[in-house]
């Protein structure tokens, strides 16, 4: 179910914008505190009141909790059963964050990513994305939602933006706390830049991974052919327009993108930009040739970059990895699941 279809159905049942918001808020906030709907039900049109139990059952069936896998740092991986039996994954992060999936599988095919190996299975609907938040909220408060789980949000752009609008309005998430993560895509940049007045504008995370165009083509073979310099220029324009810094994501792989050439490239590319570089030491995946660098090496790179004026964060715990890295969640989440 796409949220736009749900909105149309509510309107067809006689809902005005206030009724519609009340019903959607009750769903997305996932709390009975919307004395809301139950107590105010009699304010809804009769046709909507009568249809509501069926609609609520449909919404509840979008994603059901399948299993919960706690992490050592307080994160929790949630496996959710969708109506067609496929499993979607979300991760509850420390400090009220939630990482959600936008697709089952992914077509970008990054060489170092487990999800990329299997290609795209299907898109998630905007309803299924919000349903991940609803399920998470049944366990803990959620105040930040990052679209960094399975899938490339730019490849399911309309549905992701629908989910963002609902979460940023009826869903009670601050707009800056909604994070759109991408490998970089012209249409996504254009669309985000032209979101109109009153629309929720998310913060941007850009998966960079290298400053070298040829290496990027090798590592991300089906990502759009934008060079790292072009990507940073597009992201930077969005950051300046919204006032939200860009999160540049860098999965650090031993002997691949941890050398002095990349340090020089990063200093040249990111000096003076409005962003933060997240270094995420690679989480090794069985069957893939990439290796995690030593912690000392990663810390040295972070220190060097910091000294040279690049705001750099070295991510070290499971929740922080998820917070910082497309593909890393999938490596962590899927590897044990597939063994
Ligand atoms: Fe897709 Fe992200 Fe994996 Fe690349 S790292 S294949 S974009 S899920």
From TrEMBL:
Keywords on record: 4Fe-4S, Cytoplasm, Disulfide bond, Iron, Iron-sulfur, Metal-binding, Methyltransferase, S-adenosyl-L-methionine, Transferase
Location within or outside the cell: Cytoplasm
Cofactor(s) listed in the protein's UniProt record: [4Fe-4S] cluster
Coarse class of the protein's main subcellular location: cytoplasm
Annotated Radical SAM core domain residues: 92-321
Signal peptide: none
Nucleus listed as a keyword: no
One annotated GO molecular function: methyltransferase activity
Domain of life: Bacteria
Family designation: Belongs to the radical SAM superfamily. RlmN family.
Protein name: RNA methyltransferase
UniProt organism field: Sphaerotilus microaerophilus
